[in-house]
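Support request, please re-run this one:
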Amino acid sequence: MSAVAIIVPCRLESTRFPRKLLHEIKGRPLLLWVAERLRNETPEIPLWFAVDDVLLRDCVEEAGFQAIMTDPAHQSGTDRIAEANRTVKADHVINVQADEPLVSAAQINALAGMLKAGAEMATLVTRFKRIVDFYDANQVKAVMRTDGRALYFSRSRLPASRDLGLTIDDDWLKENACYRHLGLYAYHAAMLERICQLPPGRYEQSEKLEQLRVLENGYDITCAVTEDPTIGIDTPKDAEKYAAMLG
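Re-run finished. Output below.
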């Protein structure tokens, strides 16, 4: 049993980017870029990969990482890591998405710190800097209460400006903080199991955002802002951007 563990949910197929976790960037699968990043950033935290296919299992295990086979029928990453944690048995679980290769130790420590402070579930957001990103449906928007707890997550523009409508620009973003949700979560193990017992919610199914299941059922998600650079690989173009960053 571990006090805290990182579990990365991994699904072979992806609607927007087929088999993206095995997509090679600079000669290495995306999944291994994420794995190596986590090993370098937080070597003190046990790391597991919850996979749904032997190709993913072999990819990480041949590189020296630990994998757990999980049910391919899972509809969300939350369900997948919950199954994996029944083997890992961690008290606290940090969920890092397998397509976030710039995750940092500071981000992981921020998540762990929110759990220690009493949050049952926590996540991270970062401020939008470009209006083109704010309009991108692949970049999820987060709106929060004054105490940092999430109000809603959406693929649509949130918040909107009634006065400016579709004419908002980069200057407006500088004056009006809007936040992008990052695919990083932390849970108490009991909360993780509780979420998996809840039926999929209306907004979760509409937006295809599993965290909305939590909000729809009256539970809190505590958010913290990170300024660390980040990139989520949702499309082949994102993979090209990351490759360019690597030089």
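The longest helix spans residues 30-41. The CA atoms of residues 86 and 189 lie 9 Å apart.
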